[in-house]
Amino acid sequence: MPADPLHRAASSQRRTPSQPSRGSATSAVEVRRSARRRRTVSAYREGDRTIVLIPARMSEAEERRWVTVMLDKLEAQESKRLLGDAELSERAQRLSGQYFDGRAQPSSVRWVTNQNTRWGSCTPAEGSIRLSHRLQGMPEYVVDYVLLHELAHLLVPGHGPRFWRLLEAYPRTERARGYLEGVVSADRLPHLPTAREE
């Protein structure tokens, strides 16, 4: 998220109070639109409110989506509980048991810092899974989705229908994908393949 200069009260800014934020210490969300802002979206806490800064040209639907993305991002930054490789491996085992009947058995699961064009990768022949350090600090359900995505590759190497059927078991798949697509859109990073890209 690019840092925003201190917001100036300007005639081009429109303020929109929004719904209370879910599960955070704040009670309300305020959306501020600015004609000066072209592409970036940012958010910060101000007292008991969350301020989300967006371009004036955004539609109401885009605004709702970005408010959700930014609330998740702030929540993740505030919790900032980073998993080590050992905890990540335990988490992968738990997820495999819960969603794949324990059939996906990775030989190693670890964070890597040299993976900037993917969220995760898997080498089925070795059973190794690597997650990008960029996921650290994101909501747990997002990290779980990427772990499950890579675990599914231990069972089905490609992105065909069988692969996507495996991921249907995880109830937050669509939400996690939406979150990652929002991050990609904001950061202009490559995205995970969709079922339509097979």
Automatic annotation (TrEMBL):
It comes from the Bacteria. Gene3D superfamilies: Metalloproteases ('zincins'), catalytic domain (3.30.2010.10). This is M48 family peptidase. Residues 1-36 are annotated as: Disordered. The lineage of its organism: Bacteria, Bacillati, Actinomycetota, Actinomycetes, Kitasatosporales. InterPro entries: UTP_pyrophosphatase-like, YgjP-like_metallopeptidase. Residues 105-180 form the YgjP-like metallopeptidase domain. Residues 11-29 have a biased composition (Low complexity). It holds the Pfam family YgjP-like.
